[in-house]
Amino acid sequence: MSSSTKDVFISYTTCDRDVAMDIVNYLESKGVSCFIAPRDITPGAGYASRLTQAISECSISVVVCSDAINASNHMLNEIDILTEKKKPLVPFVIEDFNLNDDYRYYMGRSQRIIAYPGNPSFVFDKLLQALMPALPHPITPVAQPAPAPVVENVKSTKVFDYLPSRGIMINPGDTSRNVSFRTDTFINMFGGIFEKVVETAGIQEATKIFHDTGYVCGKNFATKINNQWDLSTSGASIYDIYKDKLKKWCEFDSDVGWGKFDIEVDFNNVIDGKFGTLTINECFIVDKQKKRDICAFVRGYCEGVIETLLDCGVLLKCVSCPNKSHFSSLCKFDISILEK
Predict the structure, then answer these.
(1) Domain 182-337 belongs to what architecture?
(2) pTM for the whole thing?
(3) What does the pLDDT look like over 161-175, one tens digit per residue?
(4) What CA–CA distance (Å, rounded) separates 330 from 96?
């Protein structure tokens, strides 16, 4: 092994160079050496031959993934060589997109690191943990200064209070009882019911039942909280009040762990009935393993909530689904007024 051998080969497109360099700087600060072109190619050296040598000598690769890779034959060549050399690779996905067929062939089954939304650096520690089993030497962490005290509210007590004497969690707003489950418990439970309905009534009816059940739950939830939230209405238009209610709902469901809810609406710019979009990142009930449409429950639930908060019929149309993309964790819906 030559003195120029690096632990990790970084594969990226030019437009993702900043993210790639941030990864390199982080990993090298932890004692993990990285090869990244063109930094590590000696001027005058054969570019292609040096890349091939670096891939042969590395232990593992990080592939920075965005929609830009779909148009990069150069990066596809690197991944082809990585696969030929039997080098493990870790896709580091920095945006929601669909791989083209070439990349899906090589990376469709690779364990990915989702680094969006927000700054990709928030999962650098997770990336390091994914790389460590393949590294040829132990990592000696660099001593870090003590973190500054956290002054924000602790998430676990932001929404629910725990009563040790009764062993339960309650919503302090209305003292209603709440229960916490692992996400795989929900998926297995809902998935089992879904399969039984499919056996007796077919997949379309099963999807409809899950949607309609979610819709009723959404209307019931929104009816309870619609008049409980203390929203300032002084001088506010009805549309501002609607926006505040929708924003508070998204914050609540995000805080209780349903996923990261975000909504954008424009009541003054309705085009073909559409007036906004709803996104849910890492929705808790997406069945990516068996692809069962149990997330129809969430679509129905959101329709029920939005209809109740806005006092009008709405329709959610799914335009991005994690079940249809191995590298996506984002559910995205167009929100339209429902014609009666």
Answers:
(1) 2-Layer Sandwich (3.30)
(2) 0.60
(3) 888 877 888 877 667
(4) 7
